[in-house]
Every structure is written in C-alpha cells, then in structure tokens.
Amino acid sequence: MASTSTDRNMGASSAAPRPTHAPASSRGSGGTPAKASWFGAVGDIVNRGAIPLWIGAGAAFKLYDRDPNLLPLPVRNIVFSIHDRVGIGTTEQFLEFAMRSIIAIEIIAVAGMVLLPRISRWLALAMLALFITILGTLMSQGALTCGCFGAKGPPPVVVLGIDSALFVLAAIFGPTARAGRPLIFVTAAAIGTALAFGVPSKSGEGAPVESPQAPSQQSPPATRSAAPPTPTTKTPTTDTAPPTPTTKTPTTDTAPRSSTPPPPGPSTAAATEWPAPPAKTKGFYAPRFNTWVGKPLSSQEMMLMLKRPLPAGLDQGKWHIVFYRVDCEHCQDLINTHFAGTLAVKTLLVKVPDASPGRDIGNDATDVVHSELLRIGSVPDYVIGTPIVVTVVDGQVKAVCDKTDDLEALMTTLDAE
C-alpha cells in the first residue's frame, strides 16, 4: 500500500507543469485589437489615419484642378519621355491619362492604408519615400511650388517637412495587426479609379474671332515698321487742299476692295495666314517645342490662342519670340540680359497666364512687342516650362531653346537664320 501511495505521489510530482501565458495586455502591438498597446494605437493613428488623409487631400486637390502643371516637373518629363517612346495619342491626351492614373494610384494607396492594416505601414512608407525624393529634386532645381495641393498649395519646403515627419512616425510606429477588409478595399479602389477617370475634362469657349477691321488695329505693337509711313502720307494731303480729302475718300473706300495687301502689308499678312482661334478651347496645351522646328508658326495649335489682333508682320522677316511668366525670376533675368535696350531683331514677348499668378517682377525690355496667350475663364492651362526662346524667319520656326541656362544653346537659337 505504501508503495502504491508513493508511486502515485511520484507520478503526480513528475507530471509536466502546465504552461502559463502572459496576459494579452502585455503582448504589445501583436495583441488582440481590444487590448492593443499604446504603441500600436499610435501606429494606427499615423498609418491608417494621418497619412491617408494627407495623401488623399493631395489627390482631391489635383482631381479638382485637373491641371497637369501641378504634376512636378520631373514627373512630367518622365511622362513626356514615355510618350516619345510609345507614341500613343497626342501629348495632351497622354499627359492627361498619366495625370489621372497618378490620382487613381494615390486613391488606391489611401484605401489600402485604411482597409488593409497588415500592409498599411509599407504602403505609407513607400508613398512618402517617393514624395520625398521628388520634392528633394524640385528643391534642388529651385522650384517655388510643387503642385501637391493645387495651385495655391504650400511651398515644397513645407510639404517636404510634413512628409518627412510622417515618414519617421510611420517607421517607428507600426499599426496593430488585425484582419483586413479586402472586399471593401476592392470596392473602394474601383470607385476611386472610376472617379479619377470619370470627372470630365476641362474645356471652354473659344476666343472671339476679330472682325475684318481688326488688322488695322495691329499697328501700335509694330510702330517702328508700320506707323511712320501712314501719318506722313495723310498729313500733307489734309493740309494742302480741303477738296483733296473729298477726292481721296472714295479712293480710301475702294483701296481695301481692290488692293487689300499693299496698304496694311504686315498686318494683313499676319491676319490672313493665321487660322482663326478655336471655337472651343482645350483644358490645357502641352506643346513639344522641339517638334516645331521647320514648321510654320501658325500651324502650331497653341499659337492659335495668341491674343488678337496679331502683331504686325509676324510672318515677315526674323523674329525672336520669348514665352515667359510674370512671376518667373529666371524669365525676367533672361529678358533683361538679352532683350533689353535697342534690338536688331524684332522681338515678341508672349506672357503665359497661370491659374494663380504670382507677383509681376517686371523687366527692362522696351524695344519689344508684347502679347499673351489667352486664358478664358479657368481654361486653358499652359503646360510650359518657361522661359522658352523661339526664332522665326518669314513665319517658319528655325530654332527653339528650352534650356536658356545653356548660353551656347541660347546663342545658337538667337543666331538661327
């Protein structure tokens, strides 16, 4: 009996002890959702709240404006390079497709961060790392705006600071591990993509077509060539004899009918050889200036948006055309350096309008003709990196320089014949 009792005691004492589990509350961010630690809670706020709101706001602003100028210049250059290789559609069509695709990707990423907790942190880090790289490139190029939050958004340095802070927080704090909602994510991604591509493109009414009398109003911009002969002819006729004007009145009336080209020569040339402005403007123009060389200036679609009446003699002789923005310091420096004072070649300064133009810096150019590209209401936007210098001879584009910092390239363009 004693041995039996001893055997039982030995069996009981030799039984393996039951493993004990730590309380769920001590498991940190890997615990159950109900008892997640503060570390995981902060991770949820950062990765599934703050960062999706930040990126989603940028996507919303870009979708509202639908202006490709808001895409950072490095991104636009990549899009242009891809279009040059694949050659699908026009530049404007391909650029708009790329812009809407980028917006759709941002919306899908936001949906993933919110609805797929297991990968939300990695999505956030990947998106922010890409944004930080682009912003750093822009700042190294001296850009004053990044377009991340529309035309009136904060400067790149502010956006870079916020992106960097969110990146550090996402790297430190991970969200709590919990099951995602893939079906809801797929639905949200589909709705976001449909929204990104479904919002109509911007367009507007065309510029008003000038009346047949408009060419005579073109003389003020080209005073040096057209204005002097006219007053000298009329003054002696009026002063010499009163009857003479009455004799000349019929002559003046019949002249436009029988010999329209000779009297207003340069003005009429510009008016008759250029097509009328479009009946309906595009949402934006994204010209590839390198394709203009060797073609008539009047055949370029964007140039039909040049303000009417056209400068006198634009299709005659040699012209330098400078596309600039009023708030572009680099543009004004170029004009002050190469187009101030008395000029040997006729020069046209074409102002490029923006949705939200900055302060007009001004320049010292005096011996130039001024004009601008039309913007009617909120359209069109002009996707142009200014300044651009174009040399035109007898209406034909001879050379284009879009890298005006390169003095040799600039002088080659100015000397083109």
Structure description:
The chain is α/β, with parallel strands linked by helices. The protein has two domains: 26-201, no CATH class; 272-414, Glutaredoxin. Helix content is 47%, strand content 9%. The protein is built from 13 helices and nine strands. The protein is elongated and about 75 Å long.
Key terms:
single chain; 417 residues; alpha/beta; Glutaredoxin; 2 domains; 5-stranded mixed β-sheet; two-stranded antiparallel sheet; 13 helices; 9 strands; 47% helix; 9% strand; elongated; disordered N terminus
Average predicted local confidence, pLDDT: 78
Shape: elongated
Largest sheet: 5 strands, mixed
Structural class: alpha/beta
The H/E string reads: HHHHHHHEHHHHEEEHEEEEEH
The percentage of residues in β strands lies in 5-15%
The N- and C-terminal alpha carbons lie at a distance of: 123 Å
What is the strand arrangement across the widest sheet? 6-5-4-8-9
- Uncertain segments: 1-16, 19-31, 209-272
Give the fraction of residues assigned to helices: 40-55%
Number of domains: 2
Strands, total number:
9
Radius of gyration: 34 Å
Compute the number of helices: 13
